[in-house]
């Protein structure tokens, strides 16, 4: 990316895209043995925090079309990682739940993510990693001050 590209927002967006592409590429390698894709991991991570939810919850959280979420959930269900259950109180509503297999995989998946990040930053000095962390904290703070952390 050229340093003098137009606006700072454009530069930040470009850097996020580039970093995300590298991170996802490395995660795909790490998840290869487990047969999980980064989008599947993203949804599993969401479910680990919530335990149960509806397709619309996931769709809203990640700004994905419900059909896209359903496709990802189809693959996770085929792998035995999620279960779809109709609510007894309202048969129209389908809850998404983690399976026992997904619960057992949680630590392995977390290890892949953490290991991938460690591998990607191993050539950085402690000072450089501190600068990266400080920069990301600053970005998070700026987003929070602008109300973007609340989905606004």
TrEMBL record:
InterPro entries named among the record's database cross-references: ArsR-like_HTH (IPR011991), HTH_MarR-typ (IPR000835), Tscrpt_reg_MarR-type_CS (IPR023187), WH-like_DNA-bd_sf (IPR036388), WH_DNA-bd_sf (IPR036390)
Domain of life of the source: Bacteria
Residue span, HTH marR-type domain: 5-141
Pfam family, one: MarR
Keywords: DNA-binding, Transcription, Transcription regulation
SMART domains per record: HTH_MARR (SM00347)
Molecular-function GO term, any one: DNA-binding transcription factor activity
PANTHER family: TRANSCRIPTIONAL REGULATOR, MARR, TRANSCRIPTIONAL REPRESSOR OF EMRAB OPERON
Protein's name according to its UniProt entry: MarR family transcriptional regulator
Native source species: Lentibacillus salicampi
Lineage, uppermost ranks: Bacteria, Bacillati, Bacillota, Bacilli, Bacillales
């Amino acid at each position: 990316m050229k340093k003098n590209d137009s606006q700072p927002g454009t530069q930040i967006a470009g850097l996020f895209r580039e970093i995300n592409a590298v991170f996802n590429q490395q995660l795909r390698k790490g998840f290869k043995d487990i047969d999980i894709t980064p989008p599947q991991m993203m949804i599993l991570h969401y479910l680990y925090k919530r335990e149960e939810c509806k397709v619309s919850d996931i769709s809203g959280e990640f700004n994905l079309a419900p059909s896209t979420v359903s496709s990802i959930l189809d693959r996770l269900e085929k792998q035995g990682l999620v279960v779809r259950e109709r609510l007894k109180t309202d048969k129209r509503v389908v809850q998404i739940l983690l399976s026992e297999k997904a619960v057992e995989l949680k630590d392995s998946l977390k290890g892949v993510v953490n290991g991938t990040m460690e591998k990607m930053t191993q050539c950085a000095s402690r000072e450089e990693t501190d600068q990266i962390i400080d920069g990301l904290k600053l970005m998070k703070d700026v987003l929070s001050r602008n109300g973007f952390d609340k989905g606004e």
